[in-house]
């Protein structure tokens, strides 16, 4: 007959280390998300200063708009892209900016007078500008900053 002895102290130490690593991982994910939101809020403020058709009251509302855009992009946008896939294909991808304008208009409805988008053609230009600035901000500022912090 074999007897197996389990040392509970070692097991508890491993569980504590795993929990600490999990908490640290989640905290790092939250900090990365927060850096992205600050970057996107900065892009919205820059777009607001460059284009008359977009108005953001201050950085707080820019940050709030960035969070709302993030939530809408994760929830509604995949559905809209799936529905409009034939139009996106026929227009060689240009209809995708119509979806971005629709998301911005939803943010306008949510935030009211603190964030609004006016005009007919200018929202498309603003949408293209925001998309380009987000790509540039992510690749040249946010990702290198996150990589530097991980080291």
Shape: globular
Could you say how many structural domains there are in total? Answer: 1
Tell me, rounded to a whole number, the average pLDDT: 85
Q: Indicate the structural class.
A: mainly alpha
Summarize the biggest pleated sheet: 2 strands, antiparallel
> What Rg do the Cα atoms give?
22 Å
Order of helices and strands: HEHHHHEH
Question: Beta-strand level of the residues, as a percent range?
Answer: under 5%
Kindly report how far apart the N and C termini lie. Answer: 51 Å
Strands, count: 2
Strand order of the largest sheet: 1-2
Helix content: over 70%
- The DSSP helix count reads 6
Uncertain runs are: none
In summary, what is this structure?
The chain is mainly alpha-helical and 151 residues long. Helix content is 78%, strand content 4%.
Describe the structure.
It is a single chain. The protein is mainly alpha-helical and 151 residues long. The chain contains six helices and two strands. The protein has helices at residues 8-50, 59-75, 77-83, 85-90, 96-111, 122-150; strands at residues 54-56, 115-117. The protein has one domain (33-150). It has a two-stranded antiparallel sheet with strand order 1-2. The mean pLDDT is 85. Helix 1 (8-50) packs across helix 2 (59-75) and helix 5 (96-111) packs across helix 6 (122-150).
Fold blueprint:
Layout lengths: L7 H43 L3 E3 L2 H17 L1 H7 L1 H6 L5 H16 L3 E3 L4 H29 L1
Antiparallel strand pairs: 1-2
Helix pairs in contact: 1-2, 1-6, 2-5, 5-6
């Amino acid at each position: 007959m074999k007897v197996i002895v389990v040392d509970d102290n070692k097991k508890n130490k491993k569980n504590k280390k795993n929990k600490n690593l999990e908490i640290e991982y989640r905290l790092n994910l939250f900090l990365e998300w927060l850096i992205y939101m600050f970057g996107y809020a900065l892009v919205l403020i820059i777009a607001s200063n460059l284009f008359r058709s977009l108005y953001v009251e201050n950085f707080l509302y820019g940050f709030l708009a960035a969070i709302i855009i993030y939530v809408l992009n994760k929830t509604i946008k995949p559905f809209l892209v799936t529905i409009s896939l034939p139009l996106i294909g026929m227009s060689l991808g240009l209809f995708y900016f119509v979806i971005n304008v629709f998301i911005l208009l939803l943010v306008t409805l949510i935030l009211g007078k603190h964030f609004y988008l006016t005009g007919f053609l200018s929202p498309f230009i603003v949408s293209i500008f925001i998309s380009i600035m987000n790509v540039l901000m992510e690749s040249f500022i946010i990702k290198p900053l996150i990589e530097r912090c991980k080291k």
